[in-house]
Structure formats: C-alpha cells, structure tokens
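Changelog excerpt

This revision adds worked examples to the README so contributors can see how folded entries look when concatenated. The first example is reproduced verbatim below.
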Amino acid sequence: MAKTKYYFNSQTLKYEKVKLSWGLKMLKGLGFVSTALVFSFIIIALAYTFLDSPKEKQLKREISSLSLQYDILQSRLKQMDLVVKDLQERDDNIYRVILEAEPIPLEVRNAGFGGVNRYKNLENYNYSKLMIETTKKLDIISKQLYVQSKSYDELAKAVNSKGKMMASIPAIQPINSRRLRSISGFGYRMHPIYKIRKMHSGIDFAAPIGTPIYATGDGYIVAAGVERGYGNRIMINHGYGYVTKYAHMSKFKVRKGERVKRGDIIGYVGNTGASTGPHCHYEVYKGGKAINPINFFFNDLTPAEYVTMLEVASRDNQSLD
C-alpha cells in the first residue's frame, strides 16, 4: 500500500495531503522504470562479460577441440613433409646415384599450381585462411608424392634393365645384424689408440671372433692378405666403380682372384691389426672415394631397422680401430 505524504501549509497552519498531478505521476513512474532498466542492463552486461551461458560454454569446448585437432593435423602434415623430403633425398642421392640416373630437377619437385583460383570455394568463411593454407599444404605434398611415385616407376624400369649391376652393388650388411654388439659409424670419431678425433672411413661392427663375414655384392677378390692397420683384410671389386673392404679378420675363406656372390662367406671376424676388440671394419668406395656404407644396407633391413641402424651409427662415439 502506497504511503500517504503530507506537507505543512503555512497559510492554513495545517498538514495537508500531497497531491501529485498525472504528469508528475507519469514522470515518476518513467524514472523508476528507467532506473530499473539501467540497473538491469548493467547486471546483464556484467553477467555476459564474466559469466558464460551454457551455449557459450559448449561453443568454447568445441573451439578447444577443433584447435587441438588442427594442431594435430598440422603436426601430421609436418611429419609427412619430413618423410617426403627424406624420400626425395634418398631418391636423388642414393638410388639415382646407384642407378646412374639423373636427379629430378628441383623445379619439377616443387612445381606449384597455376591457373584459376583453386581455393575459391573455401573463401568467405570464418576460417577461410586456415582452410586454404592447410589445403595448399596437402596439395603440395600430394604433388610431391605423385612426382616421387613416377620417379620410382622410372627407377623400377632401370632396375629391371640393370639386374647384373644391382646384384654387384653392395646392398647388405657384412655380418648378421642379430649378432651385433655395437656399431661405430662413418665420419670423425675418437681414435681408440691415438685419442684424437680422426676420420673413420667405414663402419665398425663389433661381434664375437669367428662370426661369418659376407660379401655384400657380386664381384671378385682383388686383395686377400695383411695390410698395415687393417690386419687381415679382403677387398672386393664389384664393378661399376664400387669396391668394398673388410678388415681385422681372423681368417679368410676365399683367395685373390676368386669370384663371389652376394651373401657368400668370405671370412670371419677377428681382432688383427690396429684393433681394440673383435669386430669387422667395413668400407665402401665409389670411384676411389670412401662413402658412408650406411646407405647400402637397403636389401636386408626393414625401414624400422634401418632407422635404428642410422641412429646408432650416427652417435659420436669411439671407433674400434
């Protein structure tokens, strides 16, 4: 119930009721409503600023999930790009070198997409830029994989026409990897005797004395005897500019001038020459120049085993000779 208000009339010396006109009543009502609306607006604004509605919470969860999926997609794209680059590197610098084929020109591998706007249908969306960039990356990787696939088709034809050459080129490990103890790879390593960093022109396969050593490709024995530092060593000429050397052997199973096939036993692991432990020191030469043998184990290793071998051989450790 509204309170009745009075005022003191100085002329009549009486308290009289305050009577408001309709205009004042309406103005007062409008003032109350306006004040209520202002406070309501402030409360709603604060609520929307600091508190999330159920719909906003749901949208934020979806955005967070999409951001995570986008990051995962970008990470996978980077991994795919690294794999493609590794395939290209091995294609140009190993397989094509082995088969004496010309490397694929860089402008062919990295050819872009000309002509009309391929991504017009992805424009005018909230995240058009992200979608276009991701689609472009996928297109580039797809194009590179297509070029790589055509390259392998070309190499397959070359392999078929060069069967004898492929049988001659070193392509396996000189000893059974399941009997390995450790590996010291190609490159500068700490010399076990001189205690200085010295170029190690091969790979050391530590294994028990008497472990069989295999010819890594078809060829003929050009040397089977003692060499300073190498101890008992064998050299095989495979033709096509390739020669392999096997050192520190305990004994031979072949003689100079004898022809051998890939996988034939040519001798056994020993500890002769400048050696600090039983192992097979293995070198590969192309055109008289020592090259990393790790690139010639593609016949008897799975991709996973090759990655493990590559990681172990690249460690900066001490050689065994």
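The second example, added in the same revision:
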Amino acid sequence: MEKIKDIMTDDVESCSLLDNVYEVAQKMKQLNVGAIPIVDNEKLVGMITDRDIVLRCIAEKQPPSSKVEEIMSDQLFTVTPETSTQEAVRIMAEQQVRRLPVVEGEKLVGIVSLGDFAVRQLTDDQAKEALSEISESEAQH
C-alpha cells in the first residue's frame, strides 16, 4: 500500500504569522500555487488559500495589509508521511479539501494535493473519486 511520503511534495514554501495577506498573495503568484501553509516556530498553525483571500479579505473589504491570522484557516486536517494514500483520499473527500498538510508532530514536512494523486497511475481512480465527491459537494453550496 502506497504511503503519503511516496507522493507528497516535501519542499514546501510557507509564510509566518508576521506576514500579511499581500505578502502571502505575492508568494502564491511567484510559486503558482493556490495555498500557503502558515508556520510559527516550525509549528503548522494555519493555511491560506486563494479562496480565503477572496472571501475573507477582499469580499469583506479588508486591506491587503491584514494579518494572516485574520483570514487563515486554523482548523486543519492533516496527515503524516506514514498515512496511506487511501486514507488521505478519504479525508480529502470527507472534509472537502483539495490539499492536506503533512506533519510529523506539529512540524510541517510536506503537502499532498489531489494533483499528486492524479499523476500516479495506481491512485488515479482514488483522485477521481475524491475530486468527484469534492466537486459534488461544492455544487450544492
């Protein structure tokens, strides 16, 4: 059975609680990513997605200089490097998330996204299933 450590991205860029929303958005643009983990003293404390920026900052007329902790998601669903890919897909589908931070204790060591599953032949069906479930739920909102 394949483990998350076999497919995760382990070179993950992050921001800190000292960064503001503008700096996070700039990093997203530079890296061409839709989510940035927020780390405080090596501890994963939150995630900010492009959607968080739109809904919690721009739509609420908050300035780009807003603190990241004002808009980040702090209720996180995480996995460990030893988590099975099947369990990770189940969590993604159940929690309606496209990315999972990978942690050892509270330390961020990687990230896994639906795209990581899609590039693997063995888990392609898992990715399709999770994406289908996530997309169906989003359509209901």
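Reviewer comment on example two: Residues 4-140 form a domain with the CBS-domain fold (CATH 3.10.580.10). The chain has a mean pLDDT of 88.
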